[in-house]
Protein backbone atom coordinates (compact mmCIF):
# COMPACT_ATOMS: atom_id res chain seq x y z
CA UNK A 1 0.00 0.00 0.00
CA UNK A 2 1.27 3.46 -0.84
CA UNK A 3 2.22 5.61 2.08
CA UNK A 4 0.64 8.97 2.79
CA UNK A 5 4.11 10.49 2.27
CA UNK A 6 4.05 9.46 -1.40
CA UNK A 7 0.64 10.94 -2.08
CA UNK A 8 0.29 14.03 0.12
CA UNK A 9 1.61 16.53 -2.48
CA UNK A 10 -0.21 14.95 -5.41
CA UNK A 11 -3.14 17.28 -5.91
CA UNK A 12 -3.66 17.56 -9.68
CA UNK A 13 -5.10 15.53 -12.52
CA UNK A 14 -3.24 15.35 -15.82
CA UNK A 15 -4.98 14.61 -19.10
CA UNK A 16 -3.82 13.43 -22.51
CA UNK A 17 -6.81 13.54 -24.77
CA UNK A 18 -8.67 14.77 -27.79
CA UNK A 19 -9.95 18.32 -27.99
CA UNK A 20 -13.48 17.50 -26.78
CA UNK A 21 -12.27 15.55 -23.73
CA UNK A 22 -9.74 18.21 -22.76
CA UNK A 23 -12.26 21.03 -23.23
CA UNK A 24 -14.81 19.30 -21.02
CA UNK A 25 -12.28 18.60 -18.29
CA UNK A 26 -10.88 22.14 -18.44
CA UNK A 27 -14.42 23.49 -18.08
CA UNK A 28 -14.76 21.24 -15.03
CA UNK A 29 -11.73 22.99 -13.53
CA UNK A 30 -8.78 20.61 -13.86
CA UNK A 31 -6.52 23.03 -15.76
CA UNK A 32 -3.31 24.11 -14.06
CA UNK A 33 -0.02 25.72 -15.07
CA UNK A 34 2.79 25.28 -12.55
CA UNK A 35 5.67 27.63 -11.66
CA UNK A 36 7.76 26.26 -14.56
CA UNK A 37 4.90 27.08 -16.98
CA UNK A 38 4.13 23.37 -17.48
CA UNK A 39 0.50 22.53 -18.23
CA UNK A 40 -1.21 19.45 -16.85
CA UNK A 41 -2.87 18.55 -20.15
CA UNK A 42 -2.03 17.74 -23.76
CA UNK A 43 -4.51 18.15 -26.60
CA UNK A 44 -3.90 15.42 -29.17
CA UNK A 45 -5.10 15.75 -32.75
CA UNK A 46 -4.32 13.97 -36.01
CA UNK A 47 -1.11 15.99 -36.41
CA UNK A 48 0.29 15.23 -32.96
CA UNK A 49 3.36 13.02 -33.20
CA UNK A 50 3.62 9.84 -31.15
CA UNK A 51 6.88 11.13 -29.66
CA UNK A 52 5.03 14.18 -28.31
CA UNK A 53 2.38 11.96 -26.70
CA UNK A 54 5.06 9.74 -25.14
CA UNK A 55 6.99 12.76 -23.86
CA UNK A 56 3.84 14.15 -22.19
CA UNK A 57 3.05 10.72 -20.71
CA UNK A 58 6.55 10.48 -19.21
CA UNK A 59 6.41 14.05 -17.94
CA UNK A 60 3.02 13.56 -16.26
CA UNK A 61 3.95 10.21 -14.69
CA UNK A 62 7.20 11.65 -13.29
CA UNK A 63 5.73 14.83 -11.81
CA UNK A 64 5.30 14.76 -8.04
CA UNK A 65 2.20 16.98 -8.05
CA UNK A 66 0.07 14.73 -10.28
CA UNK A 67 -2.24 12.21 -8.57
CA UNK A 68 -4.07 10.80 -11.60
CA UNK A 69 -3.27 10.69 -15.32
CA UNK A 70 -6.30 10.37 -17.57
CA UNK A 71 -5.70 9.32 -21.16
CA UNK A 72 -8.21 8.69 -23.92
CA UNK A 73 -8.06 5.00 -24.73
CA UNK A 74 -7.66 5.54 -28.46
CA UNK A 75 -4.64 7.74 -27.73
CA UNK A 76 -3.23 5.20 -25.28
CA UNK A 77 -3.33 2.72 -28.16
CA UNK A 78 -0.79 4.87 -30.01
CA UNK A 79 1.69 4.44 -27.15
CA UNK A 80 0.43 1.05 -25.88
CA UNK A 81 3.90 -0.43 -25.09
CA UNK A 82 4.71 2.60 -22.92
CA UNK A 83 1.33 2.50 -21.19
CA UNK A 84 1.59 -1.26 -20.57
CA UNK A 85 5.05 -0.83 -19.00
CA UNK A 86 3.79 1.76 -16.51
CA UNK A 87 2.99 0.06 -13.19
CA UNK A 88 3.42 2.72 -10.51
CA UNK A 89 0.72 3.42 -7.94
CA UNK A 90 1.19 7.18 -8.19
CA UNK A 91 0.15 8.81 -10.30
CA UNK A 92 -2.69 6.42 -11.05
CA UNK A 93 -3.31 5.84 -14.75
CA UNK A 94 -6.86 5.64 -16.08
CA UNK A 95 -7.91 5.09 -19.66
CA UNK A 96 -11.13 6.90 -20.54
CA UNK A 97 -13.44 6.88 -23.57
CA UNK A 98 -13.93 9.81 -25.88
CA UNK A 99 -16.95 11.05 -27.76
CA UNK A 100 -15.97 9.23 -30.97
CA UNK A 101 -14.19 6.20 -29.48
CA UNK A 102 -16.05 4.01 -26.94
CA UNK A 103 -14.25 2.32 -24.08
CA UNK A 104 -13.02 -1.21 -24.80
CA UNK A 105 -12.18 -3.10 -21.60
CA UNK A 106 -10.11 -5.66 -23.51
CA UNK A 107 -7.56 -2.95 -24.36
CA UNK A 108 -7.23 -1.39 -20.89
CA UNK A 109 -3.82 -2.25 -19.41
CA UNK A 110 -4.92 -1.69 -15.80
CA UNK A 111 -7.99 -3.88 -16.23
CA UNK A 112 -5.82 -6.59 -17.83
CA UNK A 113 -3.55 -6.57 -14.76
CA UNK A 114 -6.54 -6.82 -12.42
CA UNK A 115 -7.98 -9.73 -14.40
CA UNK A 116 -4.59 -11.45 -14.32
CA UNK A 117 -4.40 -10.94 -10.57
CA UNK A 118 -7.78 -12.55 -10.04
CA UNK A 119 -7.12 -15.30 -12.58
CA UNK A 120 -9.83 -14.31 -15.05
From TrEMBL:
It comes from the Eukaryota. One of its GO terms (molecular function) is proton-transporting ATPase activity, rotational mechanism. NCBIfam families: V_ATP_synt_F. The keyword Transport applies. SUPFAM superfamilies: AtpF-like (SSF159468). It is found in: Vacuole membrane. It is a peripheral membrane protein. PANTHER family: V-TYPE PROTON ATPASE SUBUNIT F, VACUOLAR ATP SYNTHASE SUBUNIT F. Keywords: Hydrogen ion transport, Ion transport, Membrane, Transport, Vacuole. Belongs to the V-ATPase F subunit family. Subunit of the V1 complex of vacuolar(H+)-ATPase (V-ATPase), a multisubunit enzyme composed of a peripheral complex (V1) that hydrolyzes ATP and a membrane integral complex (V0) that translocates protons. V-ATPase is responsible for acidifying and maintaining the pH of intracellular compartments. V-ATPase is a heteromultimeric enzyme composed of a peripheral catalytic V1 complex (components A to H) attached to an integral membrane V0 proton pore complex (components: a, c, c', c'', d, e, f and VOA1). InterPro entries: ATPase_V1-cplx_f_g_su, ATPase_V1-cplx_fsu_euk, ATPase_V1_fsu_sf. This is V-type proton ATPase subunit F. Its main location: membrane. One of its GO terms (cellular component) is proton-transporting V-type ATPase, V1 domain. Signal peptide: none annotated.
